Amino acid sequence: MQPSVPRYSRHMLLKVIGEEGQEKIENSRVLVAGLGALGSMAALLLARAGVGFLRIVDQDAPELHNLHRQFLYDEADVESGLSKAEAAELHLQAANSSVKIDAVNEAIGPENVDALCSDVDLVVDALDNIRTRYFINDLILSRGIPYVFGGAVETIGNIMTIIPGKTPCLRCLWPDPEAVDNHPRASAVGVLSSAAATVASLQVTEALKILVGRENDILSGLLVLDVWRSCFHVAPISIDPECICRKLRQ
Ligand SMILES: [Zn+2]
To answer: Membrane-spanning regions, if any (predicted)?
Structure first.
């Protein structure tokens, strides 16, 4: 029996999505790189939004100290010994059985980044280290795949949307990986769960804009937010004339 109200009616009613946009979402393929605080929230939002194909990648297993901010997992998952990718697949499939999930229990590196990224329409970056982010940044530039970067530590978050050939890339933002390695990490200084959830929500919003074909609406620059101080600021970012992405604009 058909439900009286379609599953995605509240999306389809939105002027910025509509029936046509929802159909695009359902026909899209997205990679969520990393299944920690950002990735588990992003994957949940994307699955519930009806994204047709979700590839989820992480090599870790859920631990008790993850649960305050990694909303895809519960205490049973910590006990089960399942990997994050396996546990996430079960929870995402329970939330929306129509989404095809490809759960990959691997670290992302130079040997698999091409295979993981090449057949998707968009990448959501939910990683926690700059080296792996560079692998993805460089791959998506060569393949022309949009990429939504996000990070959260303490009460602060960053979001940037990268459209190859149109916007600055991650190397324009951070040309020196050594400097980024010295940024504070959540494992040392903590992270507020609502800061991570806010960043993931904004990343998914950027992703949906791209998937429904509203690239003109995307965030321009680096969004820096501090949820504790209720502060949001967009910092302009320019293409680095020395960056590898510059040649895509010529
Ligand atoms: Zn660049």
So the answer is: 30-54
